[in-house]
Amino acid sequence: MYDGFQIPSLKRVTDLKFPHYNVAGPSGSAGGGIFGAATDGKRIYTNIANSDRRNFELLPSNMNTTAGGWVSMNANNGRILWSTANPGNSAAIGPVSVANDVVFVGSTDRLGHIYAINAINGHGYNVSLGASSGFTSGNSLFAFCVL
């Protein structure tokens, strides 16, 4: 016990048995799923960096990409529910976050896009900026960022 909290011993942590596991996507020299995962209690979400640009089969579509992407797995049995490619055709290096059935992910494409993905089906959201192209960079506030 430490200050009211129990600290598990290293032996207890390493003795954990996992009833299932699944390979979510290809590994690579920079790792496979890196910078952690997120969960909403029902599903687990992770990125697949795919830094070596290996063949990555997306489920349930069975389409293939050599870009990075993101994966959702059932938290109870590890079954892959969906996987989606990075629309920027780049590696998917960075953490994932989930709130209110929306998964937020970042891309390493040259523009540094952030994407919102439907947590249930893996489809991306399309959002209009609601402004004409007459706005210039650096003088407009939109969704907590300066345009």
Topology pattern, helix = H, strand = E:
HEEEEEEEEEEE
Mean pLDDT: 75
The Rg value, from CA coordinates, equals: 18 Å
**Total of helices:** 1
The shape, in one word, is: globular
Which structural class best describes the helix and strand composition?
mainly beta
> Care to count the β-strands?
11
Major sheet strand order = 1-2-5-6
InterPro entries: Quinoprotein_ADH-like_sf, WD40/YVTN_repeat-like_dom_sf
Please tell me about this protein's structure:
- 3% of the residues lie in helices and 29% in strands.
- By secondary structure, the protein is mainly beta.
- It has a domain at 24-118.
- The strands form 4 sheets. A 4-stranded antiparallel sheet has the order 1-2-5-6, with no helix packed on it.
- A hairpin with a 2-residue loop joins strand 10 and strand 11 (145-146).
- The N and C termini lie far apart (50 Å).
Briefly summarize what is shown.
This protein is mainly beta and 147 residues long. The chain is built from 1 helix and 11 strands, in the order αβββββββββββ. The chain has a domain at 24-118.
Which descriptors apply to this entry?
single chain, 147 residues, mainly beta, four-stranded antiparallel β-sheet, three-stranded antiparallel β-sheet, 11 strands, 29% strand, globular
SSE layout:
Blueprint: H1 10-14, E1 37-39, E2 43-48, E3 56-57, E4 64-65, E5 69-74, E6 80-85, E7 97-99, E8 102-106, E9 114-118, E10 141-142, E11 145-146
Antiparallel strand pairs: 1-2, 2-5, 3-4, 5-6, 7-8, 8-9, 10-11
